[in-house]
Design brief:
Length: 433
């Protein structure tokens, strides 16, 4: 059987001749012995030095048996029992160390059973802290229990639970943006048609609708004319197109005149260069009389200082004058505030006007559909004889584009990658006779 090493302490191998290893030596037994010895000296002397008659005695009188401490014993009775025990242990001889006065006061206080205000407050705080600590431990050890059925149809909300958990388990809806329910446009889904578009309209309403259609057509013609002036009108017609002779004459025009002008310019540049050489050679020399003396330099310095002083005085006068411009400054501030209010009002009107326009959602701009109108000679008195205008699906599609729900689009063209083969079936072959 192998001996167990549990409970054995590893022996430290230290050199005791060095001071740094003294604190690592276990001296707890020595300290306990010294403490016991000091306690014996305080409570009547060393037990080893006392004779037997001081340590033991024979009791010849019958004494009352002390009351045993039980749960029902009052606090005052417990304190009295402790006091009797302390007094019996403190019976010492004459000439030895007497018990301190503070110990006597403590014993009397224990015997009375009364507590001071500070002690009562401290005890109350200890009880409160202990209660809170126990509650924290219980809450930490307590496992969370499900108080609802996860797969039930009911969707009860509990604000105390984790919001992420509620969203993942779909017990709470995801936060939606505030503008989710806002309409994309202020236009109505189905607009009321103009009264002049009726099958039997009034004369004034029909003329008003005709005038609107006239303005639309006039605007289209103006746009077409602008495109013609910018593109087709810039190029000549076939009869006015330039010929080869006219192009050659236009390209060679002015060549001889340019050669003559070039020779004249070169001659003038040459003459100008000679004059510059003569002018450089005739520059006057620097004379001794032109050199400034000390007096002139001093005057220039005084003049500069005087200018600085005048400039500083002018700035001071401007600063002083601003104090008397308080009313003017206030008026300027009020004027600036009014301008800001006017700008804000202008921006508000622009926003309102922008809301009444269709947004550009794609590369194609939205165009209003043509007005559905009947001319005067096309009007009939009966609804049965009226010919329909427009198309219902097209009207709904244009309404979606106008209300910024669908972007304007153009029908895609189909391009055939290869040439279609043509052949004649035998069953459908035309027999020529």
């Amino acid at each position: 059987m192998m001996e167990s090493n549990v409970g054995k302490r590893k022996r430290l191998r230290l050199s005791k001749n060095k001071k740094k290893s003294w604190r690592k030596v276990d001296i707890s037994e020595v300290e306990e012995f010294l403490e016991d010895q000091r306690l014996q000296e305080r409570t009547g002397g060393l037990v080893a030095d006392k004779p037997d008659d001081q340590l033991f005695f024979v009791e010849k009188k019958v004494t009352d048996v002390p009351i045993a401490i039980t749960r029902k014993t009052t606090r005052k009775a417990k304190a009295q029992i402790k006091l009797n025990g302390y007094e019996s242990s403190l019976q010492i001889e004459q000439g030895k160390i007497k018990p301190p006065k503070r110990a006597r006061q403590v014993l009397e206080k224990l015997a009375s059973g009364k507590k001071s205000f500070t002690e009562r407050q401290a005890e109350k705080q200890r009880k409160t802290a202990k209660k809170e600590r126990q509650e924290r431990l219980r809450a930490r050890r307590k496992l969370p229990l499900a108080t609802y059925d996860l797969w039930a149809d009911s969707n009860n909300k509990d604000e105390k639970e984790d919001m992420h958990y509620l969203v993942v388990t779909k017990r709470r809806r995801v936060n939606v943006p505030s503008h989710l329910r806002d309409k994309p446009s202020v236009f109505n889904a189905v607009e009321v048609p103009h009264p002049g578009a009726s099958y039997n309209p009034a004369y004034e309403d029909h003329q008003d609708l005709l005038m609107k259609a006239h303005h639309v057509e006039k605007k289209k013609q103006k746009q077409e004319k602008r495109l013609y002036n910018a593109l087709d009108a810039q190029f000549p017609k076939a009869g006015q197109a330039p010929t080869q002779e006219s192009i050659l004459a236009e390209m060679s025009a002015g060549l001889l005149e340019e050669d003559e002008e070039k020779t004249n310019v070169e001659q003038e540049d040459q003459n100008q260069g000679e004059d510059d050489v003569l002018r450089l050679s005739n520059n006057p020399r620097v004379r001794r009389e032109d050199k400034k003396d000390e007096k002139q330099r001093r005057k220039e310095k005084e003049k500069k200082e005087q200018e600085k002083l005048l400039k500083k005085e002018k700035e001071g006068r401007i600063t002083t004058s601003t104090l008397f411009r308080i009313r003017t400054i206030k008026a300027e501030i009020l004027r600036g505030e009014k301008q800001l209010l006017l700008k804000a009002e202008r921006r508000r009107k622009l926003r309102e006007e922008k809301a009444l326009k269709t947004k550009k959602l794609g590369r194609i701009k939205y165009d209003n559909p043509d007005l559905e109108i009947k001319l005067s000679d096309e009007l009939v008195g009966s609804l049965r004889e009226l010919k329909p205008e427009g198309h219902l699906l097209e009207d709904r599609y244009k309404s979606l584009q106008k209300r910024n729900i669908v972007e304007p689009r153009v029908r895609a063209k189909k391009y055939r990658r290869y040439k279609r083969k043509q052949y004649e079936k035998k069953t459908h072959k035309i027999i020529q006779t």
